[in-house]
Amino acid sequence: MSISLLLLLVAAIGVTGYVGGNRRAQALAGGRLSSLHSRPGYYGSLVAIWALLPAIAVLLVWIVASPVYIGSTIRSGFPEAVQAEPQATQNLNYNMVGAIARGLKLLTPEERATISADAAAARALLSSKGVPLAADPAPYMVEAAQNLDRMTTTSRMIVTVLVLAAALAGAVVAYRSVAPRLRARNRVEGVMLAGLVGASSIAILTTIGIVASMLTEAVHFFSMVPAWEFFFGTVWDPRFAAAGATDSSGQFGLIPLLAGTLYIGFVAMLVAVPVGLFAAIYMAEYASSHFRSVAKPLIEVLAGIPTIVYGFFALASVGPFLRDISAQLNGLATGSYASFIQAQSVLTAGFVMGIMLIPYVSSLSDDIITAVPRALRDGSLGLGATRSETIKRVVLPAALPGIVGALLMTASRAIGETMIVVLAAGVAARMQLNPFEPMTTVTVKIVNQLTGDLEFTSPQTLVAFALGITLFFITLCLNIYALYIVRKYREQYE
Amino acid sequence: MNILSEAAVEKALDKKMNDVSYKMIGQDVSVYYGDKRALYDVNLNVRENTVTALIGPSGCGKSTFLRTLNRMNDTIDGCRVTGRIALDGDDIYDPSIDVVELRARVGMVFQKPNPFPKSIYENVAYGPRIHGLARTRAEMDAIVEKSLQRAGLWNEVKDRLQESGTGLSGGQQQRLCIARAVAVSPEVILMDEPCSALDPIATARVEELIHELRANFTIVIVTHSMQQAARVSQRTAMFHLGQLVEENDTDKIFTNPDDQRTQDYIMGRFG
To answer: Which residues cross the membrane (chain A) (predicted)?
Structure first.
């Protein structure tokens, strides 16, 4: 029985349990619902939960445990010679067995017999059924595959029985426990609480898992390249990793990448901060509520544009435009029509990233400016200050800590931004100050080092994890500091 | 002849009006918030160098009327004022009037103390700085000191003028706000329940202060406390449901009001 059908059956038992529990509670109440501890629906839900949870638990255990158990049993059945081979080869062999086993299900009994007699015929026969094999299977593989097929079928049958039994048993036990004084409501809410706790811990555990996996790979990298060479090296030249080569001949200096990241982020903030802040001031202080209700969502649409689209925009429009206009300007000034702005440059990437950041700055600042109490504005206006004096001297100073926090959060986005810089900043890891030349960023290099056919154990690849963890800590620190500032500021008014 | 002709009544009233000097005059003042009408044709004059108390149950329009006197209602979306309000004879809703200038002449103290998150000195210096009242640092120091003295706060804060105004106690904050309003040298000070967020001792200090300020300023105060109105004001106006019920000498209002509603409100039968 397939798993989806099984789940459907379990769900049906759950629904029946709900209806049954509900009915039984009502019957026990005998028309006086107030004699029940909980409303009948809660009894129904309790029965349904008891039907579903144990069954799903059994199923989950099976999904995790059965491939491990079957796999180790089959492998231990491999001939001694095969078992002596390296782990990687054994994995390949086992995968082949798995493929044959899947193929066996498609064959008629006669064809199965052919295969077990003549292993060499298996490849042709199976590929005619749409199951391609990488090589001619060895005779022991066909045998193992047949074992595997048998074990899988048996384990499926067992799990089907177990799951259905668990569902029915749970439902029956819960159904029989339905009684007027049973605190069904509290129990159902307990299960819901557990579900909520589970959901939030998944989010937290995932973060921890990501950091841990990055850390292990980064530690691996630092065992090959000294940490100080990475953090303080001024040359980025990773070279290519020759297959199987163990020595790392490249140079992995973080400084040029970090310089590019910060420079491009700085240009982006130069664009985003004034525009975003002024837009926020207009929205919060001057705009009529009608205009605001239309314009604010429109600005926030900018935040919903995927960054790859900004990347196109930079690559196809802004970059060439800047290049051409610089050629024209140069021509007017000196007579030589050579462009001094390159299409891929710090300026292009920074400018487009700045546009991307405008809605973050404006929307965060808008919230913070609006949070400044009306009493302060009234106090200032009541003293005969104009609106703009009130904004400059009272509202903005009061909102400043919050705005700084918002800008720090925006800056951490700028530093982590990838697609725009991949397309618009260039890949040359250089340290220079001319904004018209290309530079590269940490994120671009992570993309570069992880794409293509790479050996995963070489420092050339692993450096991406070191870069990633560095980036992660920079943005983490920025975000924590920003949150700290914002929170401290909030306390003033509450 | 104890029945006077209408003309004679008019004449008597005119005479009465000429006897006292009115700082602000409100004629047929109505206020609308969107479609909702908050004030109905209020006729209320404010006498010079007098404390006028506005009393009445919550939502009766007394704060709304107060806010029309320096056009603070302008900052509320959808608020509309009709009728005529004059300051020294000039209509303050006339387009030729600069609202900024008006608010410098008619200052305001709010219900909740709202010092700016700046130093005590900067809080007081804020208004004078905006209006360019001091040319030198020494002049500004003098204005700040005088204002704080008038607000009875100088002795408490003279050694910590650079500390934040938000660090003061509630009563001190409210006196700081009064000092801030006084610093601009307004002619009229509007107070919207200035003691409602203060404890009794701080309230007593502010009331004392209002007494002293009367010598130099015209004061209009909104209050929920009958006792406070009786203690600090010379004239009292009673509002109910957006209408002015009556306006008279405070003694008269509290001992022998003309209107039954005033009587009931003062006796605590509603409100």
So the answer is: 41-65, 157-178, 190-211, 256-281, 301-321, 341-361, 394-415, 462-486
